[in-house]
Design a protein that fits this description.
With 150 residues, this protein is α+β, with helices and mostly antiparallel strands. Helix content is 43%, strand content 15%. It has a 3-stranded antiparallel sheet, with no helix packed on it. Strands 4-5 form a two-stranded antiparallel sheet. Strand 1 (5-8) and strand 2 form a beta hairpin. Helix 5 (125-136) packs antiparallel against helix 6. It starts with a strand and ends with a helix. The model has no long low-confidence stretch (mean pLDDT 90).
């Protein structure tokens, strides 16, 4: 197999692998035989094999499992429109919340934030905290808070 040369983007991601030395390309590690770009990284100005001793199939399997773990570990986000969020409340709950906003500043703040939001993320700490504050004010039950967040 001919010697390999690797070109990297500015962000360190492989953009090309060649079998001849070209301007801007770095020599691949000495025993490199793979043209699998995912194998290589830019480290201290040199091309290095991120998975020495592994076959391309093993590398692909490792990367797939890493990506699957990241998807599982990613925090869940449930983003809905403001209207969809408001529709989760009964008219009686909304009337009580708007009435309370006239005398309770924290309820007014919650509604003002809702007005300027582009969307509502039901997994966001501020959304959850705002609903819990409504429950603490007696405007919602804890069970209703959980229903709204589902």
């Amino acid at each position: 197999m001919p010697k390999l040369y690797i070109a990297f983007h500015d962000n360190g991601v492989v953009c090309d692998i060649a079998t001849e030395a070209l301007e801007g390309y770095l020599p691949a590690p000495s025993k490199a035989t793979s043209t699998l770009a995912l194998r290589y990284a830019l480290q201290d100005g040199k091309a290095v094999d991120r998975f020495p001793g592994k076959t391309d199939e093993e590398v692909l399997a490792l990367i797939a499992s890493e990506q699957a773990a990241q998807v599982v570990a990613a925090p869940s986000q449930k983003v809905i429109t403001k209207l969809a969020f408001m529709n989760r409340f009964t008219m009686e709950e909304l009337a009580a919340i708007y009435t309370a906003a006239k005398t309770e500043v924290m309820v007014e703040v919650f509604l003002d934030k809702l007005k300027i939001a582009e969307e509502v993320n039901l997994a966001d700490a501020q959304t959850i905290g705002g609903l819990q504050a409504l429950a603490a004010s007696g405007l919602l039950t804890e069970a209703r808070v959980q229903e709204v967040l589902q």
